[in-house]
Amino acid sequence: MGIRTASYGTLERRLARLLDRYPRVRSLVKGVYQRLNYALHARRHTAACELHPCVDLLTPAHWAGLPEMEGEWFFGYYDKSPWSLDMQKLLYHRLRGRQVEVIVVDRSRREIRVLGTTSVWNLQQGSQAMWLPARGGHWVAYNDVENGQLGCRLIAITDGTRRFIPWPLQAAHPNGREAIALNYRRLHAAGTEYGYAVCVANFTGREPLDRDGLWRIDLEGGNAELVLSLSQLTANEPRREMKGATHYVNHVIYSPSGRSMVFMHRWHGHAGRFSRLYVSASDGRDLRLLLDQRMVSHYHWEDDEHLLVWGRAGDAGDHYYRLDVRTGYGTIMGAGVLDVFGDGHPSYSPDRRWIVTDCYPDRARYQRLLLFEASSGRCIEVGRFLAPWAFDGAHRCDLHPRWSPDGKWISVDSAHDGLRRNYLLDVTKLFEQL
Question: pTM, whole model, 2 decimals?
């Protein structure tokens, strides 16, 4: 399946950049422009989902050899994998009104197990459900509320052992013994799509800057310490646009070894929204500012020294950049090939040969799933998924592609059939062909 471009181009991105200072006007103009383009470009007689001929699409139940389930289910963000390390289990969320069930699909036992139900979740990241690394591949964690405390629930799916720690997870360290927490109540108060709309005793949306930020959690003992505060970040190379603004941190990802972590400091105020990209040691020391040109969105580690980032760098503009986190030096990745589709959610395959990413709906409301080979510059369209208008704005269903541990499968969330669901793409035959 060749790549047919109906994406928004450089001109539209420049106009959007000019409106950064006026977010409400930008949102209104964007919505009207998108609907006009849809009226002109919609392909009324095209399938809602188109796949490369060498790619198979399965549901989680189909993958496990089980009857299909009704309802809506999804996994969440692109920075975690739904598969267990042994490739025998899948983790995802099933919508239940204002709550979600955290579910494990067990391929070896041919069964579906409900681990629990939680009220702290959002459509973009779910409840941060994840497999905890370095714990035999049998522990699951997700965010929950217990006795009025916002925190994370740890479950051993082999024997049902359960623990609750009053600190909500954002990212788990590769050693499985520690993690990073942040204030999801602050994210909600800031109007983001990543917060939790619950009233709890241990977090508020208006904590002082010197008492809010990133916490390092001891998953064994259940204690935590604030390792980077928002007051530290606002004091580091301050900008005039920070004055009187609302500040928060988000999107923490550990490096492969766990020695470092990358995250965003964001704020919005009278001049619109700004984003900075930081890297630090996992304990908060050795803080380094990597990007400070207003716009940073999604990123993934190539190795302990390099990041792939969609962001803005000087006069070069908005692209995918390969950044050296030690020097801050960056080079454009996939110029004229990958960046024509705009921002996406990128991640490296386990062998680091391929980058998978997606893009936001094009003029015809299709989201593309793309594979990019950094060594050759080759870009392959794996699939194209319709994004119905009912799934727009805060209710959108991004593909959020994720790799399986063996690098033979890709997981996506999609609403192309009118329901929010998780799908698995078998790319084995595609790789054999290449």
Answer: 0.92
